[in-house]
């Protein structure tokens, strides 16, 4: 069987991707996970090879024949980091990813898929709202995201070298925040874990508590669901194209007010939360991802409206799989 390897399969997005590929790939393909750790739900779906991608010797655990696609979703990020350890970004996001690419070349894989963040361009959203694939990096060099940002941009360029030198197919994805349900509702801000803002809002909506709407309620964000990201990855696994760089998103903006009303309506019980406007509080970031390249080149078509996404997240909350 042709093998598709998902590196980072036990992470927040990995289990969803494993499931999507299992449901959509033909029986010619075997999905294999790779991670430092085994996630109990994911382990029931696919075989997981445990290894550290930074350890050259452990690559001997990986298959050497019939490897079709290699998907790199490992990249440590500030949202998951406790404290500040920039060396982890350099070691894993640059060297670790390059080792994965090198492995893919050595085993004659057909293609490599690589996930990076949109942290290099999100700041542009303040001036232009719509973020394009060819927007040049524009970011600050003095914060908890800077080294992460530089390492992921370097790795995107390294992947281009790999493509042009070895002629292996390569696809890079630029991800905004990917919405999904996970039992872990924390992320780090400046190295300190705290509850994610949308999870605070969902918990308040569930309890029927008053919700504050901070800043400008008309500011919009592209709310993309993990299952649409999976569709994009799946399509890149089977496109005839040689290479591509894609923004992940829906191409649609949802205002902060619509976001909060949606959470109130989908997660709220009989007692609906009252909304209180606090325009003096800070604004959330604003951005809409221009997804035309993914639509035109991959045939990507987002399936989840914002409310569909919330309904599905509610189901995943009940299932408690991830
Ligand atoms: N989740 C998002 O909203 C988001 C946004 C932008 C970019 N991204 C990028 O997408 C990718 C996946 O995101 P996620 O949320 O699933 O990440 P995650 O942190 O939840 O998962 C990463 C997985 O990689 C594994 N891993 C870390 N270091 C490893 C190593 N040295 N060897 C082997 N395995 C290792 C971890 O055990 C974990 O299971 C990352 O590259 C991230 O930078 C994610």
How are the SSEs placed, and which strands pair?
Elements: E1 2-7, H1 14-24, E2 29-35, H2 40-45, E3 47-50, E4 67-72, H3 86-106, E5 111-117, H4 125-128, E6 130-131, H5 146-166, E7 169-175, E8 178-179, E9 186-189, E10 192-195, H6 197-207, E11 211-214, E12 220-221, E13 224-225, H7 226-238, E14 243-247, E15 254-255, H8 256-267, E16 275-278, E17 288-289, H9 292-298, H10 306-319
Parallel strand pairs: 1-2, 1-4, 2-3, 4-5, 5-7, 6-17, 7-14, 8-13, 11-16
Antiparallel strand pairs: 9-10, 12-15
Residues 8, 10-14, 35-37, 52-54, 73-77, 80, 92, 96, 115, 117, 175, 177-178 line the site of nicotinamide-adenine-dinucleotide.
Structure, explained:
The protein has a domain at 2-180 and 224-249 and 286-304: Rossmann fold (3-Layer(aba) Sandwich). With 322 residues, it is of the alpha/beta class. Helix 8 packs across helix 10 (306-319). The model has no long low-confidence stretch (mean pLDDT 97). Helix 2 links the parallel strand 2 (29-35) and strand 3. It has 10 helices and 17 strands. The two termini are 28 Å apart. Strands 3-2-1-4-5-7-14 form a 7-stranded parallel β-sheet, with helices on both faces. A two-stranded parallel sheet has the order 6-17. The structure holds nicotinamide-adenine-dinucleotide. Nicotinamide-adenine-dinucleotide binds next to helix 3 and strand 5.
